[in-house]
Structures are given as structure tokens and as C-alpha cells.
Amino acid sequence: MTTQPAAATLPRTTTMRLPAALAFIAGVTDVTSWILLGGLFTAHITGNLVVIAANLVSGTPPRLASVLALPVFLLTTIAATMLARRFANNRTRTTRVLLGAQALLLTVAAALSFTGTASANPDAALAVTIGLCAVCAMAAQNAYLHLVPVTAPSTAVMTGNIVAATIAAVDLVTSRGQSPAARAKWQAAWPLLAGFVGGCLLGAAASTVLGDHAAVVPAILALGLFGGVVFREAETAP
Predict the structure, then answer these.
(1) Which of 34, 156, 195, 220 is most solvent-facing, going by the fewest CB within 10 Å?
(2) pTM summary value
(3) Structural domain spans, the chain
């Protein structure tokens, strides 16, 4: 039987804030790729299926990156799961590897964005590579959320979070704020919504101001988050 190290359990404030921070990064990544890479969804990955279906019905050839996004996302998730199992469910090590992989992949995408104008041809090798790096980064993020925390909050698809927040808000109003369960659900849902929406707004602004180089924004955020998580784990280590 494998014993989890004490550092594997993040402080309560970290467990509440980390998913919101990841939702923020997902929002930035998704919007920058959608604006700059021909409508590619890198975080809301199933959105590509809708776009591909619409393209097929209208007779428009689907984007190469959109076609590759789902299988690449699945393969990255498989690889992440196998790595986590190999670490014997060591949550600290899994966290470092998966969030580190997210930061590295987004950094690679950012670096590639300075080698050419990817938005000029979303089907060119440069744009496809940048997009798939971002897809792999989001797969690593989502795999982390399912493999490490006790629950797996959604940081990319906000429909479920909107429903949960709405139900919690109704229950809070009808109970006049006296329902602990509704309060807990509200506190779990609204940071994810706020994080993702805030990330989308920043991604849109960055795409307008920085153009193709907007990929540097999610990279910086992911590197900062990874550094913060490692620092907190070091602080809480026995």
C-alpha cells in the first residue's frame, strides 16, 4: 500500500483557488486560439465537433487542427493517466508533472508564435503545431483535475457550472441564506465561472493588442501558477 506524502494535500485555500486559476488559463487559451487559429477550440475541445459537423453539412472542408484536436487531446490524457499510475498515485509528483507539462506546452506554443504569422494561414504547419500544443496543455490540465483533487471541477466547459451556480443561487434566496449545502455549491461554482469569463476577456484583449504573440499570455500565467504550486508544496512539506 502506497502512503501519500503530507505535501500531496494542498491547503484549503489552494484547493479553492487552484481550479479558478486553471479556469482563467483555460479561458485565455481558448479565446486566443479561437481568434488567431481559425476558430480552433483548445480548451472547450468538444466545440470542435460542432464546428466540424457544421462544415461537413455546408460542404466546407474542416480545419486540420480541429480534426486533430480530439484524438490528440485523448492521446495526451491517456499518457497523463499512465504517468500518474506509474507514480503510484503520488499526488505531489503527479501535480508537478501535469501542471509543469501544461506550462511547458503553452511556453512552446508562445515561442512558436514568434517564428511566423500563424493567423495568416490556420491550416499551415506552424498554426496547427501551435494549436495542438495548446490542446495538449489543456488535456494535461483536465487530466490533473481528474487524477489529483478529490473532485473534478470543470474549468473549460462552463454549462454545468452555470447550472450549478443558478440552482445554488435559487436555493440560497429561497432559504434566505440559511442552506449550508447551497452556500457550499455557490462557493464552488462562481469562482470557476468568474475565472473562465475573466480569462476569455483577457484573451480577447491580448489577441487585439498582441496579435499572434498573444499566446505568450497563457504561457506566462501557466508558468506563474506552476511556480506558485511548487512553492506552496515546499512550504507545507514536513
Answers:
(1) 220
(2) 0.87
(3) 15-236
